[in-house]
């Protein structure tokens, strides 16, 4: 059975139920139920709690979940290494990413990777900064794109510097200006991301000694742009995120200027499986060649 019973448990929690886990694994619902029951019997306590909200870990299950994720990750590394020894390229690479990288970089990176390694399955996990760091910390993701600096450990590589821009409605009095003074955010209605993922804008404003008047907060980057477009306030966003999505708004360099650094993190470093390391190499090469053009 290998690591199947451990993967079945994690999928049931991630997807919210045994039926969806069975579909993802390509087996019957009863097979997944049997695997989880077998694991619970082996450990001596219940791992899952089922309710109308789906499958959730019990308190005991939450305590052993990190170790279970470690087993699944170790098994995947073993599978990748064994395939490499046989001269094959197989395995699954779980990639944590946030919106701008997912939209502007990942399609090109994935296309380049699949052309070289068509047998490797890629699983994309998209969220905000906090989500990606959590996935990398608990082993849910094999590698991920993160803002730097980061408190994560592992092999961390800076990829690119990304300028932060003021985003204002086209009707704003400073829409035609060459620069947008950061001091103006002290009296403008500010639209930002949730505090756990808004370190770019907050960091730029803190460096400029400005306390923004936050009117609205959301987890959705593109909702921020839409709200600015409707004249509900102003914001600060990375250039990479904007691109075609900036239609209907004005994007101006900040005064003083600010930027973010995007990096790639392999939490397992040298212990990462061959397929994971090859994807990381492809990502670094693609960004070096095309990252600036994607802006």
Largest sheet: 8 strands, mixed
Instruction: Please identify the top-level CATH class of one domain.
Output: Alpha Beta
Strand residues, percent:
15-25%
Query: The CATH topology of one domain is what?
Result: D-Maltodextrin-Binding Protein, domain 2
| Cα distance spanning the termini | 46 Å
Task: Name the overall outline.
Answer: globular
What is the N-to-C succession of helices and strands? Answer: HHHEEHEHHEHEEEEHEHEHEEH
- Averaging pLDDT over every residue, what do you get? 87
Gyration radius (Cα, Å) is: 22 Å
**Portion of residues in helices?**
40-55%
Number of strands: 12
- What is the CATH architecture assignment of one domain? 3-Layer(aba) Sandwich
Number of helices: 11
> Spans of 5+ residues with little confidence (pLDDT < 50)?
none
How would you describe the oligomerization state of the chains in this entry? Answer: single chain
Which structural class matches the secondary elements? alpha/beta
